[in-house]
Model the fold of this input.
Amino acid sequence: MSPKILITGANGQIGRVLTEALRQKFGRENVLATDITKIEDNEPFEFLDILNSQRLYEIVEDHNITQIYHLAAILSASGEWNPLKTWNINLNGLLTVLELVREKKLDKVFFPSTIAVFGNTTPRVETPQDVPLLPSTVYGMSKSSGELWCLYYYNKFGVDVRSLRYPGIIGWQSLPAGGTTDYAVEIYHAALKNKHYECFLNADTRLPMMYMDDAIKATIDLMEADGNRLTVRYGYNLAAMSFSPEEIFQEIKKHIPEFTIDYKPDFRENIARSWTESIDDRVARKDWDWNPGFNLKTMSEDMLHHLKIVFSQEK
Ligand code: AKB
Done:
């Protein structure tokens, strides 16, 4: 029998693509999108503010939900403008979901963690799975505490919680909002539209990144994996590629030779510097056969191909 899935934050950068992918796999009627705003053609859909626990309980009962992908969160850069609100949404939102999954005995829950859990005491290169976590942003603090809560609910109550530490995610389907890795999506739009990009990070600030297709594959594969094989119930390290703004710029320039760039780092540079450069994801590879499909070259070809189509349809 098909699971009945609820996605929170379904209109976000990952949520939109994940909702579509899950609908392809399990059938549209089995995947309920929820968010605080609505976009067109996203049925079935329910409005949901993740802090409204009563509404969440009602929706889960009304739709006979069996699994939750809990994506609703405020990201690293916007989180710094309103730390207490970010903590409230990110941490209390998660606790509401975990408590509901426990009480209603739902089958599974997915929690997106992030490379933002790492901090200045974390080894920066090929960061291992288990390392000191002293995150510098409230977003990172909320996700690192969230990982601990996931582990607690798994150990104490047997809640089947699964989690990934996403790197920066790059996709053509939508522009991200409020993250530090957003530049790596914006740069493709700017290359095609203006032939110039002003980058808010320094030229050499390397970060772990991943193409959207791989992020969606990783998420669904982890959720579908045999639970007995999983040894990590907080956040799995997950890697595909690492690059700096200058490296992605040079890659795009191979396709658009007239493309130019300026570097004007802002507060997001400090956030990026507090994260790591590259990730050791051997545990994910061993436990549930994780293997990424895209590198910087193949991702750039695919991004530019799709964005050209999208922009030509806008004209
Ligand atoms: C952000 O930049 O805040 C996110 C993330 C790495 O979690 N993309």
